[in-house]
Amino acid sequence: MSRLKQTQAWLALTQHYEATKQLHMRDLFDKDPTRFDRFSLQLNDILYDYSKNRVTDETMALLLALAHEVDLPTWIERLFNGEKINHTENRAVLHTALRDRGDTPVMLDGVDLAPQIKAERERVKVLARKIRSREWIGVTEQAITDVVNIGIGGSNLGPLMVNEALRPYSLHDLKVHFVSNLDENHINGTLEYLDPKTTFFIIASKSFKTQDTMVNAETARQWYLNGIGSDTKLHRHFSAVTANTALAREFGIADENIFHMSDWVGGRFSLWSSIGLATMIAIGEEHFEELLTGAYKVDQHFRNTPLEKNIPVIMALLGIWYNNFFDAQSVAVLPYDQHLHRFAAYMQQVDMESNGKYVDRAGKPVDYSTGPVLFGEIGISGQHAFFQLLHQGTKLVPADILAPIFSFRCIPRHHRALMSNVFAQTEALMRGKREDEVRAELQKQGMDEEAIAALLPYKVFPGNRPTSTFLFDTLTPETLGSLIAMYEHKVFVQGVIWDINSFDQWGVELGKQLAATIENELGDGALIDSHDSSTNGLINYYKQRRPPSKALAKS
Ligand code: G6Q
C-alpha cells in the first residue's frame, strides 16, 4: 500500500468520510449561521467562499493534518527555493521567480536569476513599446497593425486566455491574433484578412521543434515572402520566444528579435515569461507588471500564510476530499465573466497536464486516484447546456464559480441579472429541492394530485452539490494574475499530496514523437503494415482516398 494511504490523516479521513457522507449541506447551513464567515477567506479584492462544500470543522482539520503529514510546508519552500523538484527532467520549477517583486535573490545553481529575468523582460518591453507606439516599422515603413502569435499548448493557451481576459486594456488599433492549430484553416483564416506589410509574427516555442508551430511558422514565412516578394526585411516582421536560440536563428530570425525562455519554466506556467510578449504588446508593460504583481501577492500569501488560511491550500484540499474520498472524477470551472471565456481551457492544461499521472515520484504506480478531469465554460452558457447534469446527474461534480462585482461598462440591468444567476445556482446546487417543496409548488400552480404524483420525481433535486465561489471587484490585470496563481498553486499542492511530479509531461512528448513517425509514412503512396490493423487501416484508407500528389502538400 502507498505511503499516502498509510498516513494517519488518510486513515482518519476514510473513517470520517463513512461517518459524514450522508450529511446534507442544507442541514449544516441551517444549524450554523456562521458557516459562511468560518468557511470563507479574503485576499485583496478576492473573496473565496468555500462554505458550500461538504465539509465540517473536523473534515478541514483532517485535511490540514494530511497536508502536514506529507510535509507540504517543506515542499512549498522547495518550490520557491529552486530545488530541482521536476526530477524526471532534472529541472527547477521557478515560474514564481518571474513575478518576484522582492529584493531577496532568487538562486539557482548558485546564480541569482533576478538580473537575467529583469534584463530579458526589458528587451521584451522595448519591442512591445516600439510596436505599440508605432515606432516599429515594417518593410514598407508602415507601422504594425496586427501581431500573430504562433504557438501551441503552453506557448498559446496562457497568453491567449490572458489577452482575452484583459481585452478592455488592449489597444483598439493593434490586433493580436493567436494561431495554434496545425489545421491550415487556422492560419489561413487568420492571415486572409491581414497585410504582410503590417503584420508581425511571434514564433513562440520553447523547443522550437514542435511540429504544429514549425509548420505554421513556415507557412507564415512563405505568406510573407509571397506578399512582399523578398526576405530582405524579414527581421522586421518575425520574432521568436524560445529556449532554442540556434534553431530560431536557423529559421532566419535576427538575434535582436529572439527572446529567451529558460528551462526552469514549464510551458503551461510560462505566460509570465517572454512568452508574454504577445500579452505585453496587447495590454502594455504597466498592465503586464500588474499581472505579475497579482501573482506575486498570491505567491507571498501561499508561502507565508498558515495552511488553514491559505487559499490555494484549501482549494487543493477540497479537491482531494472529493477526488479521493467521494470518488468524484471531474471538476468544473465556471466563470461568469465573458472576458474569462478561455479560463477553463487554460486551467484544463494547467491541471490535467500537471496531475494526470499514474506513477508516483519513485516511479511506482499509485493506488489512489490522481488529477481529475477539468472542464468548464462560461457559467451562464453552461446553465443552458450541461448544468442539468450538475443538478440532477448521478455524478458529483464540484464546481468553482468566478464572478466580478463590477463589469467594465457595468450596464446595471445586465450585471444584476447575471449575478442573480451566480447566487441562485450555488444556492440551488447546495440546497436542492425536496419532494415536499416540489409538491407545494405544483399545488400552488393548481395541478391535480394525480398529475403531481406523476411529475414529482423528475422535479426533485437532491442538492448537496459543492461549489466554491470567487467574487472579485473587477477583472483587472492584478486580479487576474492572482486568480491564475491560486490555481497554479492548488495544482502543485495536490501533486505534493499525490506524491507525483506535476511538472513533467511525458504524455505530451509521446504525441510529438508518434506524429513525427507517421508523417514520414504519409509521404508516399505505399500502403503500410507497421501498426495495428486499425491504425494501418485508417492510414491506408487515407492514402487511397488522397493520392500522394495531394498527400504531399507539405510544402
Ligand atoms: C506545457 C507543455 C506543452 C508545450 C507545447 C508547446 O507545459 O510542455 O503544452 O507547451 O507542447 O511546446 P513548445 O513551446 O516547445 O513548442
Low-confidence stretches: 551-555
How many strands, which pairing sense, and closed or not: the largest β-sheet?
A: 6 strands, mixed
Query: SS-based structural class?
Result: alpha/beta
Strand order of the largest sheet: 1-2-13-12-10-11
Rg, rounded, reads 26 Å
Bound molecules: glucose-6-phosphate
End-to-end separation: 54 Å
Gross morphology is: globular
Number of strands: 13
Count of DSSP helices?
24
The portion of residues forming beta strands comes to: 5-15%
Question: Percent of residues in helical segments?
Answer: 40-55%
Mean pLDDT: 96
Task: Characterise this structure.
This protein is of the alpha/beta class. Helix content is 49%, strand content 10%. It is built from 24 helices and 13 strands. It has helices spanning 3-6, 8-20, 25-31, 35-38, 57-69, 72-80, 114-132, 157-165, 184-191, 211-228, 245-251, 277-283, 285-304, 311-325, 343-355, 379-383, 387-392, 412-431, 435-444, 449-459, 477-498, 506-521, 533-545, 548-551, and strands at 40-43, 46-49, 107-108, 111-112, 146-150, 175-179, 199-204, 238-242, 258-260, 330-335, 373-376, 399-404, 467-472. The strands form three sheets. Strands 1-2-13-12-10-11 form a six-stranded mixed β-sheet, sandwiched between helices. The radius of gyration is 26 Å and the shape is globular. Mean pLDDT is 96; it is low at 551-555. The structure holds glucose-6-phosphate (G6Q).
